[in-house]
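Hello,

Our lab assistant flagged a job as stuck in the queue for most of the afternoon. It eventually completed. Since we weren't sure the result was trustworthy after the delay, we are filing this so someone can double-check. Below is the sequence as submitted and the structure that was eventually returned. Let us know if re-running is recommended.
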Amino acid sequence: MPSDDDMHYLSSPVPLSMRRGPITMGLLWVTMVTAFPAVLMGFQWLKDGITLPQVINCTLIGCMVLLAYAVPAAHLGAKSGLSYGALSRLVFGGWASRLASINILWIFAAWYSMYALLLADTLKSIFHIEVPIMVLAATLAIIMALNNFFGFSGVANFARFVAAPLIIAAVFYTFGKVLPTCPVSALYETPHVSFSTALTSVAGFVIGFMVWGNEPDYWRHGQSEKRTAALPLAISFLIGGVIFPVAGWMVARMSGITEFGAATNFINTYSFGGIAFLAPIVLAASYCAGNDSNLYGMINAVENLKKLPHKAVCATLAIFCAAFAAYLSNAGAVKALESIASLNCIFLPTVTVIMFCEFFLIRSILGIRTDFSRVPTFAELPAVKWVPFSALITGYVVGVGTSGVIPGTEFMHVGLCSAQAWLAAAAVYIPGRLIQHRLQERVELRLLKQRSESLSQSELELAKDA
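-- returned structure --
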């Protein structure tokens, strides 16, 4: 029977009795941030001349930046029990909340389609399937949606019992096998690119690949204590953000292979002894688990815009992503992957940064208590709350401007576009929100004073009449 538990709580908190423990949430998050593209990027970084120490240092920096963001983001979801869309309504207003949901749709659709395309490429490389890549990718995109018909329970159970154990076992086996083959001299090789360039490329990808932005959608199903989110997140980022790409770099150095298709074939032989069915099982579990979460996020986004039947939304999104996967089959995988990662870490997490600044910082300073038990409808909200919206646009401009995605802006592609976007948004929002509150207080005091004077004048006139 399909579970309808979570889909009843899109505008209200998930009850504590229905929350999952840290092991389930941790295994779910492992599958959400550990995927084979992270291994393939290790091959690409070797090709770009990035050394092993640069890869290790930059992936660790990326993970630390990501952890500083993800812990409060996850805790916000767990503490409130509310979805990303519901929280965005409380902070941004009606129209801006819709904008946040639309951003989830196009970014997660891009990730979903990319995963379907990468799985199709994997199966063609291993089994030499004669079906055109766009047809295979579109077919897989539809098949990968089946698990989401069972709601969050289907996503979490697949991650806990199937995907996570396979992924963890496979990556640690590959890492343990290749580590002794990597000479100590690799730690002292002369870099061919500057550290700043490596940081922008490596840490930027790690953050863009592993950040979700709508963490509250998932962690609202977890327990509300901070430590239940921090440890699973740290372990997940260490595995997906450090061990995966480092293993890919070392395998690339040993084999001399740098192309994605050849890398997939080599790892199939190297890690699985050439047994044809093992690699597809592990990689399919990884890609399917990631797309479970991608599709789940898209479904929540749609239902923040308009309440529709869950299965109808799931099926429609699957068909749309199938068409998108067929379209992406004509684009370069590496460039598309880097571009999606760069935009992903800007458009969604910046909204979340503003939200946890509001709930964990601003309201603490101002002594405002938050009632998460009820989320206003769109009709009850202003179309736009200008302070958070202005902060959001500032973050977008800074992030996109320094991402290098727009042609002609490559010279501005410095630093970590994600962290720069988040800090810019916070720098505008925090003082802006405090100034707004102070002005509102002055207006309220003025109105109260006018009302008091009006009442006093009325009392005086009554006394004269008497």
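-- support follow-up --
The delay was a queue issue, not a problem with the job. The result is valid. The chain is about 75% helix and 0% strand. The longest helix spans residues 417-465.
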